[in-house]
Amino acid sequence: MSGSKPDILWSPHHPDRYVICDSELGLYSIGSVGSTETKPGTLSLSEETAATLLAINSDTPYMKCVAWYPKHEPECLLAVGQANGRVVLTSLGQNHNSTCKELVGKEFVPKHARQCNTLAWNPVDSNLLAAGLDKHRADFSVLIWDISSKFTPETSVAAEKIRLSSVDLDSSTVVTKPLYELGQNDACLSLCWLLRDTKLLLAGMHRNLAIFDLRNTSQKTFVNTKAIQGVTVDPHFPDRVASFFEGQVAIWDLRKFEKPVLTLTEQPKPLTKVAWCPTRTGLLATLTRDSNIIRLYDMQHTPTPIGDETEPTIIERSVQPCDSQIGSFAWHPSSQNRMVVVSAANRVMTDFTVFERISLAWSSTASLMWACGRHLYSCVEDEAEGTDGAAEKDIATKMRERAQSRYGHDTVQVWRNHLLAGGSDPQLSQNTSSSTLED
Length: 439
Description:
Oligomer: single chain
Protein name: Anaphase-promoting complex subunit 4 WD40 domain-containing protein
Radius of gyration: 31 Å
Shape: elongated
CATH architecture of the largest domain: 7 Propeller
Helix content: under 10%
GO cellular component, one term: lysosomal membrane
Keywords: Lysosome, Membrane, Metal-binding, Repeat, WD repeat, Zinc, Zinc-finger
Number of domains: 2
Family: Belongs to the WD repeat mio family.
Distance between the termini: 96 Å
Number of strands: 34
Main location: membrane
Structural class: mainly beta
CATH topology of the largest domain: Methylamine Dehydrogenase, Chain H
């Protein structure tokens, strides 16, 4: 990511740690202001939170993409895709066990050098790492590496490439034979494994979205589209996928993959990132270039499955986490509607919570109820003490209670109406007595 905007990755294991990917990798720990010791490397993220720099890794230059190993062990293993197409496994200041020591420093080298655009770990078969590369007429653009592979260069040409490398490498740490090779004579700009079936890989190729099945790599399902960047699966609906092209986001249903089920409002500037909220169903955040605004699309009420004639209900709104231009953002994996953003110019970080829209309901009995996020609140009338010590209620409440007790229905024994009304209103008692005397 040298020479480009930074990116953020939350740890899949620790909810208080994340990595800033720029010209180097920086590991941060986030905590409340009171619990975070003030020391060099501590940065204020909000009025309540601050981040402490734990480690820096400058061993992987020319970074273009980074992916965090999804399993708990080893806990801080990162894959780094470089400008020459190599994928390097590295770590950040952790105590390495034997497994991690074997993996850190391992390199996966394609036949022909060209830029690595994207990386994706398989969430189940975590030894599988997919890499998407630029086009080469004599090579494949989607390479799936087995990080446990022991293969070393088999040809003198591959060995010579390693020898001439600008970095001194142990040939035992270099793998040159991918487990799978897909997408020949094409370019791959984005990748993600499908949650419904982790043998399926969705790739944003040069002119289409393609689904590759590792059980039969000779066939693929594809649809022609320009929206091939940033493919990402909704964690709450495994058949729903988002991708983008320039300023437009396409929403796909994998069960009806012929065309997008929804195209979101086109933005005036090119998009740089889209991401589903992991703690809130149907909430998609998008960021455009040179902007300090994150636009949110709430698809909470979209019918599932989406019918051919159904027009989904989308609610759009924008939030401004900071004043400066945003370089990137990342949703927190477990804290509801929370994200960290990093500015494009000076790398200032901000901890930000997106507040939910408040849905309000007012009942016919004057009770008030509203929902905010996962919380439901109610407000009922609180009886206030009157000047004479008796409970004073709103007149509407009095009328409803008297109607429910059939006040006024006894026309024979009129005095009983005072008791039906509760017997505590002296004015009613006086009026009832007067009516009885007159009779």
